[in-house]
Design a protein that fits this description.
heterodimer, A: 142 residues, mainly beta, B: Peroxisomal Thiolase, Chain A, domain 1, 2 domains, 9-stranded mixed sheet, 13 helices, 11 strands, 37% helix
Chain lengths: 142, 384
């Protein structure tokens, strides 16, 4: 239990990687690392498909990344309809790790383009906790 | 191993079918496929029922569909691969018949979507992606394809006008298809002015949810020759998968690796390449998808999909006519029925029965069907 707090609206409550939520609450973005082959997984996973090992450790990740692509959503699922339009992005972090995340809505959508440098930062909103993509020096944590 | 043939095809009218239930839609397609093959139902020794069952009120619909078609106690089961369900159904039928577990199989693709409230549909749509890592941020089916569109636009200069031309082309042909949901042409301006769904995609860039069914009768070569003078042969059935999460996919997201992989396996199996294809049905769930599909199937070089369209090469009379039955954009997208509907249109083409939209001399047809947000892609190659 506990993972339902992840995101703006959680669908899944039970998972082996729910410690991610406690880390985010402490303002940390963590990935998992396979103890056997040292592969780092983000989003985190409890099991390494390469060596089929399930011994993992948690490691911090660097939030610097570049936008791969994005969209501005107008037609949204019911739980999100009050906040349209909103921005979603896919970014590539260091070491080729990729993350799908909301983009801070204070950014001008016209400024978005593949390659744009963004930072992945922890974000708390109501009961929910997650991470979002932000400009490198945001005015505030919007 | 003998060759596998399609000896009968049938399709219901697609659209808002408030007159018919799921089982009745299945019956329409099944009955018309049997008529097409001039077979009695007793000739069918098994069925594969294809639907994205989360849209159906009926759980495990194969049970009730098989019963309603009068096929009990013959074997039946459901196949689900989201929007690619019935293309995968053809692949399953191919292996059932090849293995001689069955001799004559009915692939029944069916979906009843318009009975759901728009709230239910939107809730389902919100769970189309990875529910742990992406749905919690408010994803939708169009949002994923819009992200591919933005990537393609930025890298290759593809424009919203280019995408609008897909809709204009397909709606033009849809106007000639009496079974299509939308039978009215639209203009580039109308597409560009339609309301935004997930930028850059607008309402007219998107296919619509629909009710409908399509059926394929699949058998071996000996039996096929007894049933019909001109069987259509299944030359290749390619299928591939891709990570469901967008974050799990590599590259600039300007193409679907899953389609390239499925196409390679179908082309290899059929011992053909893209230049051999005379007519194609590709998955135009969104206008941008058709442009990407041209490139991923090898009809155009990377980044040149929009050019192919602009040069009218995918129109009737062009190098490779695509979706001249109107595509998903005109026909509507009753998810489980779409793959079998594409194959039905190709069979008509290869038998020279496509009327106004007949491609002259069509001998080889290709159908490509993407599942969901691109986690599955099926490529089927047929020859006359």
């Amino acid at each position: 239990m506990g993972f339902e707090k992840f995101g703006r609206f959680g669908y899944v409550s039970q998972t082996k990687i729910s410690p991610l939520v406690s880390y985010l609450e402490k303002n940390q973005i963590m990935a998992t690392k396979c103890k056997k082959c040292d592969t780092v997984y983000f989003p985190p996973r409890a099991d390494c498909p390469k060596c089929r090992d399930s011994e993992i450790t948690w490691v911090p990740i660097e939030g610097k990344g570049r936008l791969v692509t994005f969209t501005e959503v107008y037609f949204a699922p019911p739980a999100f309809q009050d906040s349209t339009p909103y921005l979603l992005g896919l970014a590539e972090l260091k070491d080729g790790l990729r993350v799908f995340a909301p983009i801070n809505n204070q950014i001008d959508p016209k400024s978005l383009k593949p390659g744009l440098e963004l930072l992945l930062r922890p974000k708390q909103a109501g009961e929910g906790v997650y991470y979002q993509l932000e400009p490198e020096s945001p005015k505030e944590n919007g | 191993m003998g060759r596998i043939a399609i000896v009968g095809v049938g399709q219901s009218k697609f659209g808002k079918r408030s007159d018919a239930s799921l089982r009745e839609l299945a019956f329409e397609a099944y009955s018309s496929a049997l008529d097409d093959a001039d077979l009695e139902s007793s000739a069918i020794d098994g069925s594969v029922v294809c639907s994205a069952t989360h849209y159906d009120k009926q759980r495990s619909p194969a049970g009730v569909v098989s019963e309603y078609l009068g096929l009990s106690p013959k074997p039946t089961f459901n196949v689900e691969a989201a929007c690619a369900s019935s293309a995968v159904g053809l692949r399953i039928a191919w292996s059932l018949v090849s293995s001689r577990l069955n001799e004559v199989v009915a692939v029944v693709g069916v979906q009843k979507m318009t009975e759901l409230s728009s709230g239910e549909i939107q809730e389902l749509m919100g769970r189309a992606g990875d529910v742990m890592w992406e749905s919690p941020f408010g994803t939708s089916m169009p949002a994923y394809y819009a992200m591919y569109a933005n990537a393609h636009m930025a890298r290759y200069g593809t424009t919203e006008e280019d995408m609008a031309r897909v809709t204009v082309k397909n709606r033009k042909y849809g106007a000639k298809n009496p079974q299509a949901m939308f039978q009215k042409p639209v203009t580039v301006e109308e597409v560009l002015k339609s309301r935004p769904v997930s930028k850059p995609l607008k309402m007219f860039d998107c296919c619509a949810n629909a009710d409908g069914a399509a059926c394929l009768i699949v058998t071996n070569s000996e039996r096929a020759r007894k049933i019909i003078d001109k069987p259509v042969w299944v030359a290749g059935v390619g299928l591939a998968s891709s990570p469901m999460s967008l974050a799990g996919r590599q590259g600039p997201l300007t193409s679907f690796e899953v389609t390239k992989n499925a196409a390679k396996s179908a082309y290899d199996m059929a011992r053909m390449g893209p230049t051999d294809v005379d007519v194609a049905e590709v998955h135009d769930s969104f206008s941008i998808t058709e442009i990407l599909n041209y490139e991923d199937l090898g009809f155009a070089k990377p980044g040149r999909g929009a050019r192919l369209l602009k040069d009218n090469e995918t129109e009737l009379g062009g190098k490779i006519p695509v979706n001249v039955d109107g595509g998903l954009i005109s026909k509507g997208h009753p998810v489980g029925a779409t793959g079998a509907s594409q194959i039905t249109s190709l069979v008509h083409q290869l038998r020279r029965e496509a009327g106004d939209v007949q491609v002259d001399g069509a001998k080889i047809g290709l159908a490509q069907n993407i599942g969901g947000i691109g986690m599955y892609s099926a490529v089927s190659i047929l020859r006359s």
